[in-house]
Design brief:
This protein is of the alpha+beta class and about 550 residues long. The chain contains 15 helices and 25 strands. The longest helix has 23 residues, at about 1-25. It is elongated, with a radius of gyration of 34 Å.
């Protein structure tokens, strides 16, 4: 009877001891030695177990699990000396020692539907951008992974253990602080920083298969909706129009794509890298969400433009596009050490300007007109829409005035002229057409009191726009003069209270899409031609 009681006591004590040993492993090393099995406080009772007592299967299973745990585990908490991620003057940042990578038992706690890598990579507590990790359980950003860091405390307080480094894409398990290597994490790493092969990029305009987000939302890669932060519809239409231009898109998809770490907070190149990251996310066929937020690019635009373009006030998309061309070209010149960049190769053309000087002959009472020629480069052409009549009859009030695009292009035929305030005649003649021709319809005019909009419809062809009558004839030049419309930015509503949207062509599906922020709907080419076009981008037929 006594032997049975002693056996039950030893069995209960063994279970308690095993559970206690498992828990003290998560204490600092200096406290582990205090409660080690060799100390008197935790030593085994002196009573010997009867020789004829047999250990039960349950106890043997617990002891087996303990032995496996001791064999597979490394020191759970090493004395890691690491700064919070910020280095002060005169101090060097100590890095966390490398821990052998292994499989993690907490991968099942990852919640992909909460992950969003479109926002700025800042710690949600310290607001620093150095050494930031994303919690793959709740999706929040925290700094560091060593002791006394925000990510470490978050893992202890919330019992969240899997963290992704947002700079080098490595996954760690906290607070054990070991690297996790598992193929099931590749989709998360791809969404953080999408990477493409040359074969995949060549098929972007040929793959007509829709993708599906985690919530079941279908979307078309390259024609995905963009989130309107507040009043950023003028930014969204420019991004949607530019990201489908083949030469520009392919260049930025591969730009800085192979670097494991990149200094994205470098103000000298922040705009280029943010723009490249956004284009890769727009064309991502494996997005977790059915939309993309341009939050990081908006922050870069606001910073580089000295808050000229912000999220709280609607601006002119043409001014943004011209500024974006100039800044991207300038950054690429400094980074790549070249004179010509993908921006100038894609959008830059040449135009000849003929300006008249009138010479008055007092003796003969005669005037002589002499034209002086200068050649300049352009990134877009502005077309003047004729003003609407001030007084309209009953018929004119019920119809909208219309004008042909070819009539507006006569401005550049070298024969038609306009007069400036000094009375000089000015003629324009195109000498070189770019790969992508940007046309701006001048709809808005400022007067002394308010902003006025011209609602005249411009009738334009969607395909086969031939500009041979508006370019300087050069027999040696065999470049095509035919263009196809690829993007059409429109303005709907009143001048100060309207919205911008864009019609884009999807080459893979041979389909036109009407995109307004998050809303992407198919439309007919006939409706594209009936819109109030403001900025058009044509692609040359090569």
């Amino acid at each position: 009877m006594n032997d049975k009681k002693n056996y039950q006591k030893n069995q209960i004590f063994t279970k308690t001891k095993i559970i206690f040993y498992q828990k003290i492993q998560f204490l600092p090393k200096k406290y582990q030695n205090k409660f080690s099995p060799s100390t008197p406080e935790m030593s085994t009772p002196s009573k010997e177990q009867p020789k004829d007592t047999v250990i039960s299967d349950e106890t043997e299973e617990i002891l087996t699990k303990k032995r496996r745990l001791n064999e597979n585990s490394t020191q759970p908490f090493e004395e890691v000396k690491q700064n919070n991620g910020t280095a002060t003057n005169g101090q060097t940042q100590q890095q966390t020692p490398k821990v052998p990578a292994r499989r993690c038992p907490y991968l099942g706690t990852i919640r992909r539907h909460l992950l969003d890598f479109d926002f700025e990579k800042l710690c949600s507590v310290s607001l620093t951008n150095i050494n930031v990790y994303a919690c793959l359980v709740c999706g929040k950003y925290y700094q560091g992974r060593g002791k006394s860091t925000h990510a470490y405390f978050h893992s202890l307080e919330q019992n969240h253990h899997v963290f992704l480094n947002l700079h080098n894409q490595k996954v760690y398990c906290l607070p054990d602080n070991y690297e996790v290597e598992d193929n099931s994490l590749n989709d998360i790493k791809f969404n953080l920083k999408p990477r493409y092969t040359k074969e995949e990029v060549l098929k972007l305009d040929q793959n007509g298969v829709n993708s599906r987000a985690l919530d079941g939302t279908e979307y078309i890669p390259g024609c995905i909706g963009l989130n309107n932060v507040k009043a950023t519809d003028y930014v969204n239409v420019v991004i949607q129009a530019l990201c489908r231009l083949k030469d520009l898109r392919n260049f930025f998809i591969f730009y800085d794509n192979d670097a494991e770490t990149s200094d994205v907070m470098n103000n000298k190149t922040i705009l280029t890298k943010r723009f490249a990251e956004l284009i890769r996310k727009i064309w991502n066929p494996k997005n977790f969400k059915g939309h993309v937020s341009p939050h990081e690019l908006l922050q870069a635009i606001s910073l580089k433009s000295d808050k000229k373009f912000t999220i709280i006030e609607q601006k002119d998309p043409l001014q943004l596009m011209a500024w974006l061309f100039n800044e991207l070209h300038s950054e690429l010149q400094k980074t790549l050490k070249v004179k010509e960049t993908v921006v100038t190769k894609s959008f830059q053309g040449e135009i000849e300007i003929l300006k008249s000087d009138i010479i008055q002959d007092a003796k003969r009472d005669d005037r002589t007109v002499i034209y002086h020629s200068t050649t300049t480069k352009f990134m877009y052409l502005t077309l003047d829409i004729p003003p609407t009549p001030l007084y309209k009859d009953s018929v004119e009030k019920s119809t909208l005035p219309q004008v042909l695009l070819f009539d507006l292009l006569k401005k550049f035929d070298g024969v038609s002229y306009t007069e400036n305030k000094e009375g000089n005649r000015i003629k324009y003649r195109i000498k070189k057409l770019p790969k992508y021709l940007v046309l701006h319809m001048k709809r808005f005019t400022h007067n002394s009191f308010y902003l006025e909009k011209n609602n005249t419809l411009v009738n334009f062809p969607v395909n086969n726009l031939d500009l041979k009558n508006y370019i300087y004839v050069d027999e040696s030049n065999t470049t095509s003069t035919r263009y196809n419309l690829i993007a059409n930015i429109c303005h709907d509503g009143k001048p100060n209270a309207g919205i911008y949207k864009v019609y884009v062509r999807n080459k893979a599906l041979d389909l036109w899409l009407d995109i307004q922020d998050l809303h992407v709907t198919p439309t007919m080419p006939q409706l594209v031609a009936l819109s109030e076009a403001y900025i058009q981008i044509y692609e040359r037929q090569d």
